[in-house]
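User: I'm curious whether this sequence folds into something compact or stays loose and floppy. Could you predict its structure so I can see for myself?
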Amino acid sequence: MSKPNLGALMGQFQKVQEKLAKAQEELASIEVEGSSGGGMVTVLANAKQEILRIKIEQEIVNSEEIDMLEDLIVAAVNHALEKAQQAASEHMQQAAGGLLPNLPGGFKIPGL
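Assistant: Here's the prediction. I'll summarize afterward.
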């Protein structure tokens, strides 16, 4: 069995770091939408889990039902953030995919 080349391994690791840093920057451009109330409330977020926009259909704006509207907003935000987290995870896995083929099974890089 041959010894691993430490220099080559370090070079691979540096490439992975560079790709992951670029992928982290790209998360801001990945947009997802969450909704609730059959689309009456929609929330646009990016994969950095930042809320970009909230849209509320005018027909559900009723001062007597503000509690329901607040619940719909919370549900839509949570839906968007869940989708943003999934999109970020998929994007980061793609960025690191195949770059470190010699890692032992089960080894995970934090954030992937």
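Summary: Residues 31-96 form a domain with the Ybab; Chain: A; fold (CATH 3.30.1310.10). The first strand starts at residue 31 and ends at 36.
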